[in-house]
From TrEMBL:
GO terms assigned for molecular function: ribosome binding; RNA binding; translation elongation factor activity; translation initiation factor activity
NCBIfam families: eIF_5A
Protein name in UniProt: Eukaryotic translation initiation factor 5A
Swiss-Prot/TrEMBL GO biological process terms: positive regulation of translational elongation; positive regulation of translational termination
UniProt keyword list: Hypusine, Initiation factor, Protein biosynthesis
Pfam families cross-referenced by the UniProt entry: eIF-5a, IF5A-like_N
All residue ranges annotated as the Translation initiation factor 5A C-terminal domain in the record: 98-165
Post-translational modification: eIF-5A seems to be the only eukaryotic protein to have a hypusine residue which is a post-translational modification of a lysine by the addition of a butylamino group.
PANTHER family on file: TRANSLATION INITIATION FACTOR 5A FAMILY MEMBER
Organism: Mycena metata
Family: Belongs to the eIF-5A family.
Domain of life, source organism: Eukaryota
Protein purpose: Translation factor that promotes translation elongation and termination, particularly upon ribosome stalling at specific amino acid sequence contexts. Binds between the exit (E) and peptidyl (P) site of the ribosome and promotes rescue of stalled ribosome: specifically required for efficient translation of polyproline-containing peptides as well as other motifs that stall the ribosome. Acts as ribosome quality control (RQC) cofactor by joining the RQC complex to facilitate peptidyl transfer during CAT tailing step.
Record keyword Transport present: no
Amino acid sequence: MCLDKTNLMDPESIVAYDVALARALASVPRKRSFVVSPTVIRLHSYIVIRDRPCKVIDMSTSKTGCRSTKAHFVAIDIFTGKKMETVSCTKRAMEAPVVTAAEYTVINVDESILSLLTDDGESKEDVNLPSGPLGKTMAADFAAGKELRVTVYNALGEEQVMSCVEVIQPRSR
């Protein structure tokens, strides 16, 4: 799982977030999201804003009245990089995506579709070549005969290549 945690998070929130994630994964193996209280969400946790998986980069709380507290979250869409904001009552549940990362070896680049190989030897051919500089670099490196390894994030049914590295073969003596 890709759950980044920093020293700024208190242990109770980490445990509550991880317990909610574990319950969601145990109940349905291919679950796309789970429900979490806004009070356990901390910096670098994942939340869903406008049906998009986002990583929290800033948050604050404020008392708006005698009975309610509001939580304000600023987050970045993990696939587009777009900044998003939401405000939620701390008594109301929020949705958090299940974000997974997997590494694959690139076996072919066919126009805009990647052919990938899992560590188990199975092929995967449903991931698009990323647009922008990462995709251009990948296509050029693959055409030059370099062996590439990619990291693919999956959240809310969407997959995207997030990074690519060249595999360096050890020298034989």
